[in-house]
Amino acid sequence: MFIKTALVTGGASGLGYEFAELLAKDSYNLILIDIDSNKLEETKNHLENNYPTQVKTITKDLSIQGISEEIFKEIGDTPIDVLINNAGFGLFGTFAETDWQREAAMLNLHIMTTTHLTKLLLKGMVERGSGKILNMSSLAAFQPGPLMAIYYASKAYILSFSEAIANELKGTGVSVTVLCPGQTKTSFQEVVSEKTSENKISFNMGCPKEVAAYGYQQMNKGKIVVVPGSFNKVLARLPRIFPRNMAANIVRKIQEKNRS
After folding, report:
1. pLDDT by residue (tens digit) across 187-228?
2. What is the pLDDT of residues 58-69, one digit of tens each?
3. Which residue, 148, 146, 166, is CA-closest to 88?
4. Half-sphere exposure of 255 toward its Cβ, with a 13 Å CA cutoff?
5. Total structural domains in the chain?
């Protein structure tokens, strides 16, 4: 029997955990990467006890430069059939006042690690003539985001990058999907708001199980840009309806309202 293997970053909780469970149900063996070793072990035990899967865990800080090479070496000769670049975090505040170290870590995670890990694993997929990649972007990717400028910009990069390589990979047997959810009820919100106690966003909040299930389904269909929820689909078209400066003003008002 052919054993398939999937790699999920940020796989210990939130959307990463939901993706891992969906893959485990489909009999994928898993490589889960996360900074939280305790949650990784809990997730490994739960999945192996409930589904036909074997789980390898790798504890890494994915925001560190060059971390993708370390991961690639630890994977060794294991062929990766599905790559889900899920790990990410946000930071709220005006760019003039936010912490650069956190922003640099975010850029390394969202852009460098996502891009490099994709590059390292993509070659094998193309050589085998099969594979699926899902990159986690956001509804934020479709417009500028005052008060979360770096987060919005980095998610726009992931969207553009994913669309471009999806086009390059036509006819290879490898597909790239970019998932662009709106606000989703995960630990992401606590990370964004860790220094801003009032930042408890509830507007248009998505269910992580539903978001992951939709993204997983669309990935398996080979879809490229995936936006869960009809209201989010409308919001994604905002810059096409309004000038970008007006869209930025609307986003800022939404950000301020959700944090008041």
Report:
1. 544 444 444 433 444 445 679 999 999 999 999 999 999 999
2. 999 999 999 999
3. 148
4. 23
5. 1
pTM: predicted TM-score of the whole model, two decimal places: 0.88
Q: Which one, of 184, 150, 142, lies nearest residue 13 by Cα?
A: 184
What CATH number did the domain enclosing 130 receive?
3.40.50.720
Count of CB atoms within 10 A of residue 133's CB? 26
The CA-CA-CA angle for residues 160, 165, 168, to 5°, reads 135
Could you tell me the residue range of the domain that residue 93 belongs to?
A: 5-258
Place of tokens 């990935």: 219
pLDDT digits (tens, 9 = 90+) for 19-55: 999 999 999 999 999 999 999 999 999 999 999 999 9
Distance separating alpha carbons of residues 33 and 179, to the nearest angstrom: 19
Query: Residues with catalytic annotation?
Result: 151, 155
